Structures are given as structure tokens and as C-alpha cells.
Amino acid sequence: MAFQTLLYEVNDRIATVTLNRPEAMNATTDEMYRELSALWRDIAADKNVACVILTGAGRGFCAGADLKARKDDMSPLQRRARHRWILKDVLEPLVRLEKPVIAAVNGAAVGAGFNIALACDFIIASDQASFVQAFARVGLVPDLGGLYLLGRVIGINKAKELCFTARKVSAQEASTMGIVNHVVPHDRLLAETWVIAAAIAKGSPTALAMTKTLLDRGTNATLDQMLEFESYATTVAFLTPEYEEGVRAFREKRAPDFAAIAAKD
């Protein structure tokens, strides 16, 4: 698939998606959203992809919406319809993708860019990265799921502070707050992220998919609900060829080859 605003490659079962508008700090446009929407569907269906890295080209991760491409002639209803399309076709498929997604934040993650990173499963940040909920500066409400995602990561009071003040948060502070899992030297960002992605990609795709889904459900479910979900997921896992391969590998004192099992499906 040819892209105008993205770069995409798959190596060793790891897909790397690069937002590729470096001249605009990878600010989002409708074309980028259309390409991401199609790509998430393709990745979900591709059995050769076990883990995803999302990063940005150039010196920024994503500067948020490209204000130069804004559509001032839209009515409120048209604007709401467009925003719903972005949420349903771009953000939600990213959040619900049943494969681990790591945001490798290489620079500024501003506005929607910050929230796209939050929609990934976790964040590895360059020591030159920064994070800003910039919406208050231009009279807007946080979008791309930020109102849902940010408070669940850092707590409602801290989320309010960042949204109300629109202040810049360094990679180091973001790590302290729990936004970022690891801060690494800028020139080692993709290499360090790749090490983590490679470890994930060796896992059982079915087990990873169920684990991700249930961990996400656990933020809103009751204990009784989670225990019931767990009972079903565990039963399904016991019935998979991946579990059989895991047991064989344990007995044979070798690493399991879950990729070979996935290739047969």
C-alpha cells in the first residue's frame, strides 16, 4: 500500500508506523487519518504482525492537528460528524487493536499528538521528547480521546492541571507522572524500543490479544466481571495450539515458536 503521509514496514513480525510529515512536525490531516484508518485494519488482519511501533519522522512525534489545513467552512453538525469519523475510524481501532502498540515518542507530542501516544499501550520517550495538552491555548477541548485516556494514566487532578494550564511536560517529568514507561537517549530511541517490541513479538498472539483486551476492560469492570472474563479467557487459552507449543517448548527446554503456529492459522 502506498502512503502520502506515513511510512510503513514490517520486519521480524514488528510493524513500524512512522507519521511522515516532518516539514509540519507530523501534524495530522484528513489524509493522514484516512491512511491510518486503512492501516489499522490491515495490521489487525495481518498474521505476520505481532507488535507495532508508532513513531514520527524528523524532530517531532506529532504537533497535533494541522491548523493550516483546518476547515473553517464546516457547520457545527458537519464538524461533529468529521470528528466522530476520526474517533471511530482512527482512534478507536488503535485503542482496540488486539496487538501491542508502543509509541516511540521522538520529540514534541502536542495536542492530538499527545493523545495518539496515550492511545498506544505504552510509551518509550526520547530524552528530547515533550508532551503538551495544548488545547486551552486555542480555545478547544482535548480531543482524540484525551479526556478519557489522560485521567486513567495520571489521575483526574493531574489531568485537569495539564489540560487547564497547557504547560509543557518534559520526558523526565512525564516518566515520573506515569505517562512514559522509559526515557532513553535520543539516538537510541528506536533501538531501545525495538528490543522491547522484539520480546513482545515472541509471545503468543492469542494470549497477548486477550491479555490486552482484559487489562483494558479492567479499568471499568467490577471484580466479579473481571473474574468471569478471566475464566473464559483462560479456558480459551488452554485450547489453543499456542499453549500446546508453549508446553512442548518448556519440556524440551527451548524457546516456543509461536510465530510458526500463527503462520499455520
Provide a brief overview of the structure.
The protein is of the alpha/beta class and 265 residues long. The protein folds into 2 domains: 6-201, 2-enoyl-CoA Hydratase, Chain A, domain 1; 205-264, Lyase 2-enoyl-coa Hydratase, Chain  A, domain 2 (Orthogonal Bundle), CATH 1.10.12. It is 49% helix and 16% strand.
Characterization of the model:
The protein has helices at 30-45, 76-96, 112-119, 146-154, 156-165, 171-177, 189-201, 205-217, 223-238, 241-251, 258-264; strands at residues 6-11, 14-19, 51-56, 60-62, 101-105, 108-110, 122-126, 130-132, 169-170, 182-184. The mean pLDDT is 95. It has eleven helices and ten strands. Helix 1 (30-45) packs parallel to helix 2 (76-96). By secondary structure, it is α/β, with parallel strands linked by helices.
